[in-house]
Amino acid sequence: MNQSRIEGAVEAICQRGCRYVNALLAEPGQLDCDALESLSSAERSRVLEELRSVMAVYQTTGSCDL
C-alpha cells in the first residue's frame, strides 16, 4: 500500500465536502469518485476507513452539517 496515495485520496475527497463524503460512505462503489479509481482494493478500503474516522470527529463536534 502506498500511504501517500491514500492520504492524497482522502484529502481530495474531503475537499468535496461533508455531504459528498457521507454519500460516498453510505454507498461505497455507487458514487463516481475519481480519487479512488487508481487505487488498489486494499488502498480504497483504507481510504474509506480514514474517511469514517474523519467523519466521526465531525459528528462528535457538530462542526459539519450531516
Explain what you see.
- The protein has one domain (3-61).
- Helices cover 70% and strands 0% of the residues.
- It has helices at residues 3-14, 18-26, 34-37, 41-61.
- Helix 1 (3-14) packs across helix 4 and helix 2 packs across helix 4 (41-61).
- The radius of gyration is 11 Å and the shape is globular.
Report the principal-axis shape. globular
Number of strands: 0
Major sheet characteristics: none
Sheet-strand content, in percent, reads under 5%
Helix-strand pattern, N to C?
HHHH
Number of helices: 4
Low-confidence runs of at least 5 consecutive residues:
none
Number of discrete domains = 1
Features:
about 70 residues, mainly alpha, 4 helices
Sequence-ordered SSE layout with sheet pairings:
Layout: H1 3-14, H2 18-26, H3 34-37, H4 41-61
Helix pairs in contact: 1-4, 2-4
Give a short synopsis of this structure.
Helix content is 70%, strand content 0%. It is mostly helical.
